[in-house]
Each structure stands twice: as C-alpha cells, then as structure tokens.
C-alpha cells in the first residue's frame, strides 16, 4: 500500500498555481481538485528543487488554511445552500481537501492511500490564563486505508503529570463526565516522552516522509496542544502535520465524484452512535469498565464511518477491518445472540401447549453449554410442537438475514447518499449529491 | 423517562430535591458585582496576595455600603437591566388598560409589602475624588464618613460614587480630612445626577438598603439571600440544620414600590470537613485515604461560619499546615493559626490538618489569574445534600417537612419578618433616614377564569378537577391514533414474564382508548447496553413503527445509547420502560395507560383537545438549555400545525454559541410555516410564540434579536396574506406569591387564577397565571410578559388562550404550569442535552418523539 508514496504526488499548491494555465489549455479546471489529475502526471517530471518549492508553498498555504479552520468555520446544520452540480465554485472559507498524501491518478491510488487518525484525551480544558491548557491522559491512533480498512492501531494511557493546584475538581469533573480515567494514581499511565516515541514509531517506522495525521476538527486544538506539550517534555522535535478528518472526507468525495459534499453531511457521516458499543472498538480498559469515551474508539469509529460510507462508494467489499462486522455476522450463523419470538404465536402456543414453560429451562441449559464469549450465544426456538418449531426457525433465519441486510442498507442510506436528508423540507438537502 | 425528569418536565409541585432546598451556588457571591452590598468583597475580604491567601473578613466594619460601582456611571445589576425596557408603550391596544375582566373575582393576599416614600423623593448621585489619590477603598470610605456632615445622613458609598437622599448645599463640596498617619487628604464631592425614585439605579439602591436592614436583624447573606443562623431548625437524626432566611427584593410595580419577600432555607450539615476527613480516614484506612478524600470532597460547597461565606473545594493541599505562614496583602507574614486567632478569636485545635483550596472567581477583571484561597477544614462546614442523602427518602421527607411551607406557614413567617423590621430600632432608623416607610402587606383582586372542557373523540368531558383528569377520560376514546402493527419489544430474560403481562395490559388499555396495538416481535437480549443497541441495529428496519425497550436498570447508558441511535442515526420512535416500573403490580393498568398515551403521541396521534375559538392560530413554544457534555446551546422549538392545536412540529437545534439567545429561529419558523401550509393549504392568520428559558437581563436581547428573526420569517413566508405575531416571555420563577384567604386561614389560590394588576409592572403587558396544582407547599405562579403583539387580542383573550394551552400537554392528563408547546420544547431540549447530544433527525419532527 505504501507504493503510492508521497514522492509521486502533486501538492495542492502546484495544482493551484497551474490551474489558470490548465484552463488556458482548455481543460475543465474550475477548482483545485479538478486540476489534480492533470498535474499529477506532470508532477513526476518535476525536478527535485521544483518539487521542494511547491512543497514549501503548500506548507504556507496549508498553514494559512489551518488558521481558518477550527471552531469558527463550523457551519450551522441548517440551511445548506442549494447548489446545482454545475455551479460549484471554490468557496473561500472551506479549505479544499488535503490530498497531498494520495496519488490521485486513479481510484486505485486513492484506495491504497494510508491515513492515520489520531486523538488525545485530556482531563478537561483549563482556562486561558493557565499555562497548561490540557492534561493529556489517553492517546489512540489508527492506520487506515480505504482498501484495507484498519491496518494497525496504537493506544496508550498517558501520565498527565501534576494537576495544577486548584484545578483538581475541574479536572475530576471533566474526567467523570467523559472518559472517566482517574486523574491521579492511575498505574496504566505511561510517561509522556515514551508515549510520544511510541507514537512516532507507530506512524513512522521507516525513514522517509512523515505521513499526515488526521483528527476531527473539534479535537484539533486539543490534540495539537497535547502533541506540542508532550514533545516539549520529551525534547523530541517533530512537528506533525495535523489535518482534519472532515477535510479528508470532503477531499475523497470530491475526488471520486467531482462534487463537494456539505459540511453538515460530512459531520453527520462522522457522528453516528451505531458503533458505540461495537466489539473490538474501545481500548481494553474502557471496554472492561464499559465507558464509551475512549481515544482509540474515536479513531476506530472514524475509520468505520469512512469505510461504511465512502469505501462502499468505491465498491470495496467491507471486511472486518473496515467495520465491526463480526457483531452482525455472528447473528447470521446458527447461534444468534438473541431469541426472537413472535409474541402472537407465543400467546397462542401458551394456550395450546402447557409444556411451554420448558422454554426458560432449556434456554438456560443451552447457554451453559456454549462457550462464554462476548455473549453467551444460544438460540432456542422452543415449543413441543415440531411444526411450530420448524416454521419458527425459518422465520427466524429469514428475519435475521433480512434485518442484517437491512442494517447495512440502513446505515448506507443514512450516511452516504442520504435520501432521508435530502427530502426534508429543503433545508437539509444536498441536491448536489442526488 | 426517569421519574424525576418527568415530574420536572410536567412542572407540577416537585418533591424537594437537593438542588432546591440546599441550593448551593457555585459562585459564593452574587453573579453581579455591581452595587452588591457584599461587604467582604469590598472591604478587603481577602488578604489579596499573589500567593495563596486565606479568606477572612476584616474586623473593621464601617457600616458602609461597599459596593463596586464603576468609576463614572453605575453598572446596573443584571436583575435590574430589564427594568429599563418598556414594551407596553409600543402595544397600542394595551396602552390604556391591560387588565381583563372575565372570570370570578377572588381576593388574594400577596408576599408584597408597600414601600412608601414622599412624593418628591429623589436620590442624589455624587462623584467623590481624593487628592492625593487613595487606593484603599476602606480608607476612602472611612475618611468621608468621619465628616460630621454625613454622620446623620442616609448614604451609600462605594469609594467613588456616593448616594444621598438629601441634596448637599453646594453642587461641588470640598472637604479635607486627616488620616491616622497625619496626611491631609482633600475630597471633592460633585453632584452628577438627580434620580427619580422609579429609576433603575434607585431600585438598586433600595435593594442595598434592604440588605442593610436584614443585616441589622442579624441575618447573614449567603449567595443572594439572607439567613438567620441564630434560629436554626435542627434535624439531628440526619446531622442537618436548616437556616431559615429570606429572599428579598424591591421593585417598581404597578401601584408603586413594593418589597417582595420569600422564605428560603439553607441546608447545612452539622459536620466540619475535618470531622468528615477523620471519619473517612477511620473508615478507609490510611492507604487510600488521600485519594478517597480528594474524590469525595472536591466539588463540595462549604460554609465558613466565621464570615458566613461559601466556597467550593477545588483541591486539597496536603503540604500546607495551619502552622505555616502566608503573606497578607500588606506584605507581612503570619501563620494561619495566628491569623484566625487575631482576626476572629478562633483557636485551631488540629495543627496538622491539611488545607482546602478554593478557586475564587475573579470578579473585576476576568483575565487576571484566578485567586486561590486556603481554608482550614476545621472551620469549614459542609452544605447541601450529597446525592446519597438526596436519595434517602426519610431524610428528604424530614427536610421537606421543614422547607415546603404551606401558604399558612409562609404567611406566618412573613408576618414575623415585618414585625422584626418594625421593632428593630436600627432597621427603623435606617429606613427613616432614607425617608422610606415600610408598609403593610398588599392584597389584591385576581380572577379565576372558567375551567375548560376536555374534548375527546366523541365525548366532551368536564373534569372534576382540572389538575388531573385521568379518571374522567378513562372511558373515552382519544382523538386519533395510528394503529401499531409492526413493532419491537426488547427485554432481558429476567424481565420476560413481566413484559408479557405488561403487553397484555397495554393491548387492553390501548383498545379501550382507541389505540390498536398488535403483537410485537419480542427480542430477548443480554442485560447490557451494547446488547440492546446491537439488537436494535439488527432488527430495526424501515417498516418498524416503534421500538420498546424494557430496561433492566436506570443506568443512564441504556437510555442514552438507545435514544441516541433511534433519534438520530436511525430515526424510529422509541419507548423505554424501566422493568422496575412494571413490577408494581397493583398499578399496572394506570402505568399501561400512561405508556399507551405516550406511544400514541410518539406515533403522531392526538389525545385530547380544548376548544380554541381562534381559527387559524399557530402556537409556538421555545426553550433553551445547555448541553450537558459539549456546553453547546440546545434550542428546542415546537409549533402547532393544525387549527385544533393537537399536532406538533418539533425541532431541536444545537448552537455553538456562549449566550443562550437563539439565532436559528428563522430556519425553524420557515419549516414550521411550510408544515402548516402543507396540512392546511394556507398560512396561519395568527402566530403566538411562548419563549421560556429567559434569564435576568436578557429581555433587551430578545426584543432586538429574536423578535426580528421571527417577524422576518413570518413576513417572508406570507407576502400577500397578513400573518400576525405575538411573543410572550415566560418566567417560571417569579417573586410574587398569592394566597386566598378562606375561613381565617390562607390557602393556595384555585387553578386558573389570573393576576393582571398591582403585582404587575407598569411598563410591561404582563400577567400571572396559576395553572398548576401544588399538592404540598405553596403554589408558584407563572409570569407572562407579552413583549410583542401584532394580534391585538384583548388581555382577557390572551389570558384565556394561555390557560387553554396549559391543558394540552399529552404527557400529563391535567393542567401544567406553562403552555404545552413550551413544555414540549423543554422536554425535547432536556432529552437532547442529557442523552442525545446532537440534533434529532427531522424524520421524527412530526411526532412528539421525546415524550
């Protein structure tokens, strides 16, 4: 997957610079993203110092864009202006996708491109007058590509250091309301230098260019601050480039469909509750304590969401690395995790067969025999009447397969080309997508 | 869903909660600094060092009004900011008369007392400068007050601005004094303003005067209210004591200046932090003592009785001992032990105790570093109730017995307060020098508007009591209900049987009320939130009308994850029921009835109606609250979409702003008007908006920012037809209370009592309405202020309409405290702020999915 390395790809700035030129040549370049395919072939021909020049410009440009992004650019989830596909004009305040890490010659390159999703949790946020604004306590990072899904992950607790005097309550309250990581005496916390070193080793195992790192725009300020803070503590100098997932999604989408999705759509795509309790999503500690807020889970869920909505658009067969399929597939096997009953039948049956009270007993027996997994599995369509049982099983299997296919249908239409949203009174519509 | 939330949403008399009785303000003093008579805040209450310093009140009391006026003009306290706004003048139809006439007159006693002053009374505002300039406010005050010229005058001075009730002879007076060090200081006192008694500044000064008076009655200010530590009510079995006290404020009412007084209690624990720590250490052992101690103590509010101030414990400093020294503001070093001995004559017994650390909110300039104070655990008393205590039924009952005063008890307490003020020489003197006369308790005449008939499908019923008509409608069919054919029940193995019998019950009551409930698909799941969520994900498909979850416990995780998924990711109406609720055998029928009603509404059904004479009227309710996690502002808007006012369009919008002023109203209104148009093929002729969740001092913003948004959307939608708008601000908490006198005792006034004279404000089109029943305690009237009104409805009609709307809350078969759309909006914002944390899907907007 790393063949499509950063060396052969055009930077945004070169595309931007060359757009007018391309337009003069009669190519349909309305916006930077459109210029990329035309530039990418030329890019390889550039000399090294030319590339360097463009890279520098890209850095500056990105720095300027970076300032714009952040909380201020958040849009109201209302009244997304209707735009016809042909009318797309680059909007000044929406930072174009940073696709610099992708070779965009083809879908294939895009699919193979590797992204890292990073999140760092803090014990709350201290007021502006404090020197220490955050107390990093947990880090999660995921290596991902559209093709492969999650390729590796990294998770660690961080020793937040001494809590500034007077802020114990503040930090405690912040922790209690979210990740619930103890603010002191938490033996799993590693010292910041080690964590940072491990993170670097994770995202950059071999010499060469550093990949860009993505996090949600809401978290960007915090993650950035924590990275800098930890770097200070460890005296490792390495400014990671932190970009927003929202822009990445916009970029991929644009690349594939040559249309710009709305921020609202991107946000709703990334913010879903359906994976909250999925297995193998949270870190061990958060899973065991059944706490939803986990830095690793945030990263994994980003990957799930992107897989579920974007990867499917590329026609990729989702694997367990893309979304926690195992939770759903398990139910298609012979031992579903729950019993489905038709209560109506249940009622009648109770009248017909007094032996039905066996139900509970036999079910328990079944359960005790099955290996204890995440869930003790075991379905038992009970009843003495064989004809009822047979029909029940058929129905059950039908219903399960229906529902499990529904699930994917459902989430697809929810998060990808949402017909739901577009039909709603016009104010959440993206006619550009339909 | 939780009982508490529901009761709160319903708005009927609440059982005392911890927050209510032992209200523990996070900031120890009033939010607004300006003109607060907070002596400690002004007279070097804190030994202000850059280092950590303990808090103490200075022994010197000059009996002054130490208030933080701004250098030139006076900053108006937020409470008084609204007073400047005059909305009535713009409303032509009520300029002359805003009182109604329908209904039966009823004589009411109030908790308002007249405050008389001479006709030509004026307040004189002076500006005082010192040469050479003096930094110490205390010194400034002492120098000015030492002049004979002021000794017998009524005065209020903060070191820069001086208020007098009598004019000085000269416009500019020059005085000179000598300090103790022999320095001569020249003071120049310049008249800056003459204020009539109705000016907001005057109102503020009156409030200061009354605070002084309460202090003279040996009451202490804690938070905004005054308490009397010398007459505590002890509840020894729970180690609690209650300090009785009053909330007092002076304001300009229709008939002149009135003082309103309400009874308040402070819940204190008879336990110092040191005692608590010792007990904890004994219990946990020393190994994990520090950790447990920090966990349990931080965040609690303590009261230091030596100065009667409250602090929040933010941290514990284990390295500092009372024998350590700190730097006072004048630079001298002193140990904590010596300091308390000198300042308060308190001897500390335990010299090895650690110190509590509290973070003070910076009052004057917000950007400076927060101040830390050290507090001695031995001197800190715990206040309020712990969650554990609040869930102790016996304890709460004991507290409630004391604090939930009925009308009679309240009346007696008020009478005693008045008596005390009139008997106390100092208090009387203070009033007299200002030229004020504290008068009698005011009584007025209200009106009881006629009760409403409840319209069911083929039956009109006149409920026996409009507080609760559940019995009256038991045999009637509801207006409309969608048949429930395809639905799911999720339950655990343990709750299977009870689910079974509940389902039977539900079907039975459903068919009686005209709500057809088919057999659902029952799914048995493991008892954990993940299993519930996964089962929902697997079995919910677009045909499913409703998902019911029988929750094994009231753990928030279950409810939150289910609601989040089903309101937003995959919008399907959901009904969560606690298994515990279903175990109450004898109540199964009534529980099933209530749940059936909720389910009907979630499917878009209508339960009942009242007669609304206005045709083509849309009512809108707006409420605002803060998200529990992200602190975003959650704005809930609910609008009726049929002329009968039984169907609603609900939308919740999250706003990334700091202020709780809505800036998305146009989007909502456009959506609501579109909906109305879709159903009625026309636009509503009238729109009445009820706005709840308005804080002190926000009236102006509302008028200037929210009303234009509403107007704008209305005019844009109806270019050719005229569509008239009214906006009414609702306050659930207001100072006045009303009692009826009956057989020589006082009682809560009957439901439907309207007060629109005397206790109202002259500059507003406002009225009070009592639409909720209080089973215990004293009923709290709801205050309505019409800030914009194009409709030109007669006050009578406006009041009647408001009362009618209080009948339409489908979660409670009875009257509620505020109009139904507002309560719906409140319920929705509560759900979003507590559980969903994102905008619910618009798919659900046509049903009351949040009930």
TrEMBL record, chain A:
Role description: Plays a central role during spermatogenesis by repressing transposable elements and preventing their mobilization, which is essential for the germline integrity. Acts via the piRNA metabolic process, which mediates the repression of transposable elements during meiosis by forming complexes composed of piRNAs and Piwi proteins and governs the methylation and subsequent repression of transposons. Its association with piP-bodies suggests a participation in the secondary piRNAs metabolic process. Required for the localization of germ-cell factors to the meiotic nuage.
Residues of the HMG box domain: 17-71
Annotated Gene Ontology cellular component terms: cytoplasm; nucleus
Domain Maelstrom: 130-326
Matching InterPro entries: HMG_box_dom, HMG_box_dom_sf, Maelstrom, Protein_maelstrom
A Gene Ontology BP annotation from the UniProt entry: meiotic cell cycle
Similarity field: Belongs to the maelstrom family.
Region ranges (Disordered): 59-94
GO molecular function, one term: DNA binding
Keyword DNA-binding part of the UniProt annotation: yes
Localization (cell): Cytoplasm; Nucleus
Name of protein: Protein maelstrom homolog
Keywords: Cytoplasm, Developmental protein, Differentiation, DNA-binding, Meiosis, Nucleus, RNA-mediated gene silencing
TrEMBL record, chain B:
Domain of life the protein comes from: Eukaryota
This protein's UniProt keywords: Cytoplasm, Developmental protein, Differentiation, Meiosis, RNA-binding, RNA-mediated gene silencing, Spermatogenesis, Translation regulation
Keyword Cytoplasm: yes
Name this protein carries in UniProt: Piwi-like protein 4
One GO CC annotation: cytoplasm
Family label: Belongs to the argonaute family. Piwi subfamily.
Molecular-function annotations in GO: RNA binding
Compositional bias annotation for Polar residues: 29-54
Organism this protein belongs to: Daubentonia madagascariensis
Gene Ontology biological process terms in this record: cell differentiation; meiotic cell cycle; regulation of translation; regulatory ncRNA-mediated gene silencing; spermatogenesis
Keyword Thylakoid: no
